[in-house]
Amino acid sequence: MSAVERKKFNVLIADDNQSDVFIITRGLAQFDAQCNVFDVQDGESLLTALGIDPVSGRPIAPQPIIPRPDLILIDLFMPKLYGLQALKMIKRDRRYQRTPCLLMSHSLSEHDRRQAGVIGACGILHKTDNPSNFRAAIRDLETVLSGGAKPRQTEPGDSRILR
Predict the structure, then answer these.
(1) What count of other Cβ atoms lies within 10 Å of the Cβ of residue 116?
(2) Mean predicted lDDT score pLDDT of the chain
(3) Residue 96: what pLDDT?
(4) Domains of the chain by range and CATH?
(5) CA nearest 8: which of 37, 40, 49?
(6) Is 105 helix (H, G, I), strand (E, B) or coil?
(7) Measured between alpha carbons, how far is 33 from 50 in angstroms, rounded to an integer?
(8) Angle subtended at Cα 88 by Cα 62 and Cα 65, rounded to the nearest 5 degrees
(9) Is the whole model's pTM more than 0.70, yes or no?
């Protein structure tokens, strides 16, 4: 399939740090992932964009406000709604039960790591200042989007997200 014929993937990033959003977006563009990137600044906006009521967790719209995402990246520490709480509400909605969701964080406790797996995160992306680690994580995101592999849980300092 040529670059012209490739499917464009919709990626939704929920992160209050616009520098991180910029880096992820630029990284996806640099590796030609053919992505439409949408971003929101907090957990409540994430749920609203997906058509989920941030209080009850119930659908508030038959269709999301944005195009249906193929991948959702959720910062763990966001204003208005903690990343794990947002993930839990997303995974309760049957429209998104099969949508891959990755949690992102500079630091993650073992408890949060376990909770993320129980709730339904398909992996964890450790935010890193190391460009080579981040490039590897972006390549992994491309592979996840193309259906080539399943994500894995990572250790601190390890930005690789594939099994």
Answers:
(1) 25
(2) 78
(3) 92
(4) 9-145 (3.40.50.2300)
(5) 37
(6) strand
(7) 22
(8) 30
(9) yes
